[in-house]
Amino acid sequence: MAVNDLIANIHSGHKRLLSLVDGADLAQPSVLPSWSRLHVLVHIANLAAAFTRQAEYALAGRSIEVYDGGAPGRAAAIEAGAARPAGEVVRGLAGATRELERVWSTVGSADWRRPVRYRDGDLAGTVLAYWRELEIHTSDLDLGYRPRDWPQELCAHLLEFLAGRLPEGAVLSGSPRERAVWLAGRAPCPVELAPWP
């Protein structure tokens, strides 16, 4: 999918996400073990901020780690953020997503190939990754948007991106959506999967 199409989908996804959380009890558990809905929202907000920073540095011809402190810093920031009041978390989410959209709107067509530290890829790759995270984690909130609502394009992407989770020689039977949900770990899989790539 072209970058501009992904960004259009992300804009729509942001609107859907903010609508779903409006008035919801965000202290309730998400579908992810040990994570409340607040944890999920903080993670999305922090990822938006991280990819904003990746874009800003890439456009300046520089690179920077995705998260300060690496994986431990990422985990600590999510836990700290999830302890904040729900209204504060939602305002932070709205601000982070707006800023990500603003920065991406300044990227020229040739600049999407600029290198970033995220997976040692390019700026376009962060858009694809953020779309994937936004769609999956919105369904993790258990607020009415579910894996059955994932777009077909996302399911096709997940089948390719997560293919390495399957043991060698293993084959999953089922619809593309069913297989994508299994590989994403959002339903019990008939085979034991390797870690997320």
UniProtKB/TrEMBL annotation:
<keyword id="KW-0413">Isomerase</keyword>
<feature type="domain" description="Mycothiol-dependent maleylpyruvate isomerase metal-binding">
    <location>
        <begin position="11"/>
        <end position="141"/>
    </location>
</feature>
<dbReference type="InterPro" id="IPR024344">
    <property type="entry name" value="MDMPI_metal-binding"/>
</dbReference>
<dbReference type="InterPro" id="IPR034660">
    <property type="entry name" value="DinB/YfiT-like"/>
</dbReference>
<dbReference type="InterPro" id="IPR017517">
    <property type="entry name" value="Maleyloyr_isom"/>
</dbReference>
<dbReference type="GO" id="GO:0016853">
    <property type="term" value="F:isomerase activity"/>
</dbReference>
<protein>
    <submittedName>
        <fullName>Maleylpyruvate isomerase family mycothiol-dependent enzyme</fullName>
    </submittedName>
</protein>
<dbReference type="Pfam" id="PF11716">
    <property type="entry name" value="MDMPI_N"/>
</dbReference>
